[in-house]
Amino acid sequence: MDNRNHAKDLPPVRIGSRTFHSRLFVGTGKYETLDVMKQALEASGTELVTVALRRVNLNNPNEPTILDAIPQGCTILPNTAGCYSAEEAIQVAHLARAAGIGDLIKLEVIGDQNLLWPDPVGTLEATRQLVEEGFAVMVYTAPDPVLAAHLERAGAAAVMPLGSPIGSGQGVLDVRQIQRIRARISVPLVVDAGIGSPSDAALAMEAGADAVLVNTAIARAQDPVAMAAAMREAVWAGYWGRMAGRIPRVEDAQPSSPVEGMPRVGA
Amino acid sequence: MDNRNHAKDLPPVRIGSRTFHSRLFVGTGKYETLDVMKQALEASGTELVTVALRRVNLNNPNEPTILDAIPQGCTILPNTAGCYSAEEAIQVAHLARAAGIGDLIKLEVIGDQNLLWPDPVGTLEATRQLVEEGFAVMVYTAPDPVLAAHLERAGAAAVMPLGSPIGSGQGVLDVRQIQRIRARISVPLVVDAGIGSPSDAALAMEAGADAVLVNTAIARAQDPVAMAAAMREAVWAGYWGRMAGRIPRVEDAQPSSPVEGMPRVGA
Amino acid sequence: MDNRNHAKDLPPVRIGSRTFHSRLFVGTGKYETLDVMKQALEASGTELVTVALRRVNLNNPNEPTILDAIPQGCTILPNTAGCYSAEEAIQVAHLARAAGIGDLIKLEVIGDQNLLWPDPVGTLEATRQLVEEGFAVMVYTAPDPVLAAHLERAGAAAVMPLGSPIGSGQGVLDVRQIQRIRARISVPLVVDAGIGSPSDAALAMEAGADAVLVNTAIARAQDPVAMAAAMREAVWAGYWGRMAGRIPRVEDAQPSSPVEGMPRVGA
Amino acid sequence: MDNRNHAKDLPPVRIGSRTFHSRLFVGTGKYETLDVMKQALEASGTELVTVALRRVNLNNPNEPTILDAIPQGCTILPNTAGCYSAEEAIQVAHLARAAGIGDLIKLEVIGDQNLLWPDPVGTLEATRQLVEEGFAVMVYTAPDPVLAAHLERAGAAAVMPLGSPIGSGQGVLDVRQIQRIRARISVPLVVDAGIGSPSDAALAMEAGADAVLVNTAIARAQDPVAMAAAMREAVWAGYWGRMAGRIPRVEDAQPSSPVEGMPRVGA
């Protein structure tokens, strides 16, 4: 494993006023136990952990909560999962701020219960409102390059297109859309949903994501801790794969062993 | 980077009588300079390096050759690249043995010059012959599950299906074929051609490859050394991604933040 | 050819107050000559032909225009191609109505010049306004199921998701999105962009489109008249393919020649 | 429907000494009833119908058989479905000839029971043998361009690559392989397995198939007769789509409504 310790660390990514050295963001839903979750979060090396605000017991500070299982040093990213309108999402953001969790928020305004597909109208509206109120808004969105540009103009701190439906494990269905969004926005791009395996995470990074957010693929893997470590390395590999400048895709073969000018040792 | 140093190293893979701790095999064609190649091979962590025998100057032992740029401790895997018949490939294998490179050989019998597609007939024939002569034969083949089983029965030490045409950078075009071959053979499966990026390497490992062989994607990357490191981690990530037991792919969304039984803090 | 004359004609599709017996809508851009265009439109069997209003000379009624090359009996569908805001598109619609072309309009509000990707915000706004003014609005949109439902609620007469970027010939990149939109709206669904070949058109229909709109794939084919006829049949085949209830996709093989209980004539 | 009656009929395809005006070949397995099969075969317009020889009662000529439900004028193509070796397949071919069905044979030598994947070794061996004995051999094969060339050299009357596993309804998984085979052989190319819908059939023809063979997709459709008609038109559409010269696929959009030099009627 020593040879993994080479000089090429990841440069940090900046979202709002915060800086993260890990580019793997992790969710907290669906783990079997809080203990497994804690180990997986540690193995992932993450510094940003998202929590559905509805799962946090805001009323009784003495009761142990999901927050207690999040490793020291991680930033908590409250999300508005389960909100179906701008109003509802804004209200949840207010509660997060009131509870002292801070003003970094992951905005989800869902428009379809089966697909958990974001509502472009409510999402844009809530982004504008929350930005005006001083929140740093990380926005879950469809992988739509024009909508992504609208969200950036509305002041989003990060644009978070889905790769495929939440929890579906289908990966990034249309890599080109991630590349197109990348070419059209300046704020960080985080692929937010659909990652099912390490290769999906690497592919998202190769396409230009600054980070990926993974939840189900880790939480519901047979071995969440091993999967968390695999995702961590895949994000690293995808980042450097992009930086290293990949070869072009071509239709036909390109010999890797040039034989021109070589002595024919064969027949 | 310290957190990359966790306990889950890769178990070694055994091919013929040899054991390899790295599951990234690397080719030596197409590098700009031997120095870049040497650095890339080192960054890759590889222990098995393939060389087109035609590129080795077997006649003048005093002249520096490609072999001098291969890191200490790597096994040399001579290949029969550029051979278009069983006879020709067998002859090249004999030369390798005569030159003292050993009896591990990567067999390529090409059937089409533009696609560098393997010839199933000549490949099977040469495999039988070389196995009989005591070679440990790692066989480049089309991703055909029935042909793979024939090759194993013929005594191949490893079956090496292409993911897509050599040097095309298209990755693994049909993951199911790799999975099907995996389910039908017992000897190591090495995805041998088409890898273009770290996500491709991870995907090959997730599909069941025991190792991947990469040449053009490293040699022709803008930064071959960084790409070699990225490939190394991607192979690691893909291996553990497979071992960790990925979630199933489903069509529609699966909420990662369960809201049942949660207090409705929103509207 | 007689056997093509069987009883299964297509049921008509109703958009706004109009009824169309052909489910192939055709555009008028990019033809080499107006004569080729006329022949292609005739071969296509189309009854709805879209025209960029900017190409129509509205000022000089004596000058021959593109409209003269459109077969008798076809409905003209003016479109707002080239409009980058709701205001601009609405203004073009007003001109179409003033010119007596009618109140059926194809609305395009573009948000990105290179992708010709629709702007969800401007598109929804213009739809609302034009519906209020009594237009029957056929709306070009991204293949977003939530946005499609918004457009229907806004009163769209037809929702027209792109299959892939305009003129790209990539077909329907994500068939599931077409199926999802189909499941969420009641007005006609027309796949509007990206069709490159007859199989693309058939696939769109199989996925649930009520019609397809084709322009570049016919106009820029080497033989536009033959391609128009091929598209016509493909739409027919795709419609009946959907109605006939296709077999499910499965991973492995299903023997088509059952051999159980059959006398073994072989060895 | 009259407009379907235009001048562009399909040119006939010649296989061995026979000529077929329809390019849709149909199988006879899996129909609910012989009556439904008969209607579907008629609706398909086929002139070549394949029958698993094992399903034909060769012993009792008075008993009604599947052959009685095949429309007049169709050529019977006995196949060797269910054979797992060259010997077995050759024996079945001999029985077909002895029964007077003729010397046109569809050769299947299966190498894997779950995938019904062809065995390249047994297939090539049986092809050579049967060609020597005077059979016109239509060969089911993996979509391997080098193997296809071997089969042609062995004397195959038609090469029949699978698009995806038999009965899987996955269509043509790698269109490029069909195109590559097309570029490498001169005898007719028939896509033989995996067709699930009319768009799949059209795509196979567009890729260069001279004909397609469909069984499960028709026999197991909810309405086999309607599906047979849809497949017939799809084959026609795919053929002419290829002949008409499709537009290239490009990544980004190409405006279909050129606006250069047009009067700006908008803002």
From TrEMBL, chains A, B, C, D:
Q: Which Pfam families match?
A: ThiG (PF05690)
Organism field = Sulfobacillus harzensis
Catalyzed reaction equations: [ThiS sulfur-carrier protein]-C-terminal-Gly-aminoethanethioate + 2-iminoacetate + 1-deoxy-D-xylulose 5-phosphate = [ThiS sulfur-carrier protein]-C-terminal Gly-Gly + 2-[(2R,5Z)-2-carboxy-4-methylthiazol-5(2H)-ylidene]ethyl phosphate + 2 H2O + H(+)
| Matching Gene3D superfamilies | Aldolase class I
- Signal peptide residues are none
Q: What is the protein name for this chain?
A: Thiazole synthase
Q: Where does 1-deoxy-D-xylulose 5-phosphate bind?
A: 167, 193-194, 215-216
Q: What is its EC number?
A: 2.8.1.10
User: Which top EC class is named for this enzyme in its record?
Assistant: transferase
Q: Name one GO molecular function term.
A: thiazole synthase activity
One BP term from GO: thiamine diphosphate biosynthetic process
Please give an example of a GO cellular component term from this record.
cytoplasm
Q: Does the keyword Cytoplasm apply?
A: yes
What's this protein's family per the entry?
Belongs to the ThiG family.
Q: Does the keyword Transferase apply?
A: yes
Give the positions the UniProt entry annotates as the active site: 106 (schiff-base intermediate with dxp)
What are the UniProt keywords, alphabetically?
A: Cytoplasm, Schiff base, Thiamine biosynthesis, Transferase
- Which pathway does it take part in? Cofactor biosynthesis; thiamine diphosphate biosynthesis
Domain Thiazole synthase ThiG as annotated: residue spans: 15-258
Q: What is its main location?
A: cytoplasm
Which cell locations does it reside in? Cytoplasm
- Assembly and partners? Homotetramer. Forms heterodimers with either ThiH or ThiS.
